[in-house]
């Protein structure tokens, strides 16, 4: 039985530990995918999926944080702004 993500990250001491757990789980689920770094972020994955007999594209931009409480709206906003800034800078 697979461990829950929380069980795997609860003893992490830095952001890289958390990043490794998430990326390993993503790679296990999307076996033929490759995580790339085109947006100066912690990773980007693009995967074609079949959902309800319709082909869809999952685009996942990753930004990992350690010790940040996402129950606080300003913390969520800061990370979203970081991602948006990376996308805008890359688009120029």
Description:
- A two-stranded antiparallel sheet has the order 1-2.
- The protein is α+β, with helices and mostly antiparallel strands and 92 residues long.
- The protein has three helices and two strands; from the N terminus they run H-H-E-E-H.
- The chain has one domain.
Secondary structure: elements and pairs:
Blueprint: H1 5-9, H2 15-29, E1 43-51, E2 54-62, H3 73-91
Antiparallel strand pairs: 1-2
Highlighted features:
two-stranded antiparallel ribbon; alpha+beta; 92 residues; 2 strands
Question: Brief overview, please?
Answer:
The protein contains three helices and two strands.
Number of helices: 3
Q: Determine the N-to-C terminus distance.
A: 45 Å
The whole-number mean of residue pLDDT values reads 89
Low-confidence stretches: none
Helix/strand class: alpha+beta
